[in-house]
Amino acid sequence: HGLSYEPSPDTLSLYVAYESHFISSRSVKSYLSGVCSALEPIFPSVRESRASLLVKNTIAGRLKMAQTPVTRKSPLSADDIASMITKYDNGSHDDILFACLLAIGFNGLHRLGELVWPDSKALQTSRKCISFASLTLTPDHVEYDLPGHKGNRFFEGNRVAIYARADGADALPVLHSYLASRASFSTTTLHPQLFVRLDGSVPTRSWFLRYLSANFSRDIAGHSVRSGGATDLALRGIPDHIIQKAGRWT
């Protein structure tokens, strides 16, 4: 092949390109480090060649070529939320709870973990639950305290406000229906948490996702609620910085 046996930047770059056809491009970087360690006693300048811009760019290029397309779940739409509110309007307490969580999550740009408990009991803590005592209802909006979320590890909390809207995705009517149901059962009426199932337990992630999968295709997942709410605001012409603030994105 006529190549120099010296581990020059050209040689190492060709090695990276060659090996990437047989092993994962992410592994080539580790392989190259091992090669350099083995050659260093014989070729002291191999580390300089390894640090060259040519070799770095070759590795970066191979990593980009090996990337797989990012797959994201589809966002829910306002029509999707409206259809669930209509479907479960006269359902059981848990049915109404699901529709309420869906509407609140959509309009409040909530992460799923802010509304339900994780399935692992070791991770379940009331510190992250929205308390019933923090709820404030007015004719045109609802407010409550969000005690903690993914970007708020020290639990300073946020005050979330959701305003009435003119279409079927309005969260206020279904919230009122849920609160009426909540007040009519002994297992729920005195519960300290705002969102609670008929048996007195806090809804879990798997419980919510079972409802979601029963009504939507596999292209819809838990994050579709939050992304759908943000998409809906953008479609309604809300500026990006307002959406960022409403969704508590830092």
Helix vs. strand class: mainly alpha
> What global shape is seen?
elongated
Mean pLDDT: 91
CATH architecture term of the largest domain: Orthogonal Bundle
Question: Mind summarizing the main beta sheet?
Answer: 3 strands, antiparallel
CATH class of the largest domain: Mainly Alpha
Which H/E pattern describes the elements?
A: HHHHHHEEEHHHH
List the strand order in the largest sheet.
1-2-3
* Low-confidence segments: none
How helical, in percent, are the residues? 40-55%
Percent of sequence in beta strands: 5-15%
CATH topology-level name of the largest domain: hpI Integrase, Chain A
Radius of gyration (CA) equals 27 Å
Number of strands: 3
| Overall number of domains | 2
InterPro entries: DNA_brk_join_enz, Integrase-like_cat_sf, Integrase_catalytic, Phage_Integrase-like_Recomb
GO biological process, one term: DNA recombination
Protein name: Tyr recombinase domain-containing protein
GO molecular function: DNA binding
Report what the structure shows:
The protein is mainly alpha-helical. The chain has two domains: 9-66; 78-246, hpI Integrase, Chain A, CATH 1.10.443. The chain is built from ten helices and three strands; from the N terminus they run H-H-H-H-H-H-E-E-E-H-H-H-H. The protein has a three-stranded antiparallel sheet with strand order 1-2-3, with no helix packed on it. Helix 5 runs antiparallel to helix 6 (93-107), helix 6 (93-107) runs antiparallel to helix 7 (171-182) and helix 6 packs across helix 9 (223-235). The longest helix has 15 residues, at 25-39. It is elongated. GO terms for molecular function: DNA binding.
